[in-house]
Design a protein that fits this description.
The complex is a heterodimer of chains A (186) and B (258). Chain A is of the alpha+beta class. Chain A contains two helices and eleven strands. Chain A is rod-shaped and about 110 Å long. Chain B has 258 residues and is mostly helical. Chain B is built from twelve helices and no strands. Chain B is globular and about 80 Å long. Classes of the chains: A alpha+beta (186), B mainly alpha (258). The interface between A and B is medium-sized, with 12 and 16 residues. The complex binds protoporphyrin IX containing FE and FE2/S2 (inorganic) cluster. Protoporphyrin IX containing FE binds next to helix 5, helix 7, helix 8 and helix 12 of chain B.
Chain lengths: 186, 258
């Protein structure tokens, strides 16, 4: 039987073409499939980050300065806001009770004069009557790699303390002196 | 009953259309038939049609992979039963577990079966990996099954981790807080990890907030872990287990003693 070779209308051999019709459809098919899958995956990636988070507000009013006595670690807001408010001779600072190791809530031990994390035992320096608050929260034992973070203290219009957990001040970035990290009160 | 009556009853059952529609023909216990039975059965066809004697030596395999699979099946069955009561929401999760423990008949048994099987599965999978390593069974042609095994190991650990949050008690929440905080240090994708600037992730959009749907371990994290724990990871693990067992067969059955 004679072998019939396919021939293009212009007489050329279709098998010699760089692109056969089959190649073209296979490639568009794969491109469409992979494109669709990738678009779907990208969309899923975005889908997992909602535009709104229903999480507690970061700022809160913590009462009037006169309600805090100098030289103690106030635990008044620890349950509701996870925050210690500390007043020394010069003014206020606020520390978020969140371990810099992996995020547990440390506890304040007045007698031992330190903050201690229940998860893996990190310890942070405490504060007492007559002390300056510059060293409060510096890590000195356990796995925590850096001091507890301070958060913003300011005065609200009505004269109450306004604490904001949004802006954070890190010791190792030399931010403890920055405006907002400490509130001078005469 | 007379002998022939018994016989006719037997015929009635075994020659009935219903029986015949399920079992096409009688079964003669021959070598050939045993092989065909394994090869032709949808549940058994992953088995090798022929098992060599050494593959059954418990001192070689410790059956650790088999034990892992059995424990996985236990967690699947008991887990599905637990799902009849457990609701993955902030208000309900904790109280539903309490209810399962104290108010649902056999609830405590089912919960504890699930819990112990899960713990045991984690141990068994390590034992299995250790055995495969010690017998050198990862060597060619079985390298790829080792790779699948490593993924199965990771999935097993992830099942354990995602399940840990579901009781929604203090231990659960803080353990997962600690665990997911490590995700902050993911290279590129965690906002405290190496090279994070290259991708531009921050605390709001990074690997950790992807996992827990926000910045704190709250109800959205519970729901996310629940879906991962009950749907996503079990399906992924099942698919890989099918491939794993298939490859054991395709790679020539259980490796022999060296
Ligand atoms: C969900 C987890 C896993 C299950 C259910 C599983 C199950 C099994 C089963 C039933 C076998 C047959 C032999 C035996 O029972 O020992 C097997 C063999 C094997 N598994 Fe796994 N396995 C798992 C994880 C792993 C891991 C973590 C590794 C290693 C990284 C691994 C590597 C292998 C290899 C290389 C074989 C072939 C061993 C041989 O031929 O002697 N598997 N697996
Ligand atoms: S989380 Fe505080 S020591 Fe680890």
């Amino acid at each position: 039987m004679p072998i019939i070779k396919p021939v293009n209308p212009d007489g050329t051999d279709p098998s010699q073409a760089t692109w056969s019709r089959r190649d073209f459809f296979a490639l568009t098919g794969w491109a469409g499939f992979l494109g669709g899958i990738s678009a779907g995956l990208l969309a899923f990636g975005r889908f997992m980050f909602p535009r709104v988070l229903f999480e507690p507000a970061t700022a809160f009013k913590a009462g009037f300065p006169v309600e805090y006595s100098s030289g103690e670690v106030s635990e008044r807001w620890i349950k509701a806001q996870r925050t210690w408010i500390i007043r020394d001779g010069k003014g206020f600072c606020a520390i978020e009770a969140k371990c810099t190791h992996l995020g547990c809530t440390p506890r304040w031990f007045k007698d031992a004069n330190k903050f201690k994390c229940p998860c893996h035992g990190s310890g942070f320096k405490g504060f007492a009557e007559g002390m300056d608050s510059v060293t409060v929260g510096i890590n000195f034992e356990g796995p925590a790699p850096r001091p507890l973070e301070r958060i913003k203290v300011a005065l609200a219009e009505d004269g109450q303390l306004l604490i904001d957990k949004g802006p954070r001040f890190r010791f190792e970035k030399d931010e403890w002196g920055k405006p907002g990290s400490f509130l001078k009160v005469g | 009953m007379a002998e022939n009556e018994k016989q006719s009853l037997k015929d009635k059952v075994f020659e009935s259309q219903v029986w015949r529609s399920i079992f096409r023909h009688g079964y003669a216990d021959t070598h050939r038939n045993r092989v065909l039975q394994v090869a032709g059965n949808v549940f058994l066809h992953l088995h090798p049609t022929k098992t060599r004697r050494h593959a059954l030596r418990i001192r070689f395999t410790w059956c650790a992979g088999g034990v892992t699979f059995l424990l996985f099946l236990v967690t699947v069955v008991t887990g599905v039963i637990l799902m009849f009561y457990y609701r993955p929401t902030g208000e309900h999760a904790y109280i539903d577990i309490k209810m399962l423990e104290f108010d649902v008949p056999f609830g405590m048994v089912i919960r504890n079966m699930h819990r112990w099987a899960a713990h045991a599965m984690v141990i068994a999978v390590w034992v299995h990996m250790f055995r495969v390593f010690m017998t050198g069974s990862y060597k060619p042609p079985r390298e790829f099954n080792w790779v699948i095994g490593v993924i199965l190991l990771v999935l097993t650990l992830l099942l354990s981790f995602t399940g840990y949050l579901l009781p929604w008690d203090q231990l659960a929440i803080w353990a997962v807080t600690v665990g997911t905080n490590m995700a902050r240090a993911t290279p590129l994708l965690g906002h405290e990890g190496p090279f994070y600037e290259l991708v531009g992730v921050n605390a709001r959009y990074d690997a950790r907030s992807f996992l827990i749907a926000g910045q704190v371990v709250g109800p959205p994290a519970l729901l996310r872990f629940y879906v991962l724990h009950c749907i996503f990871i079990p399906i992924a693990a099942s698919v890989l287990m099918i491939v794993h067992f298939w490859r054991v067969r395709k790679d020539g059955g259980i490796s022999g003693p060296m």
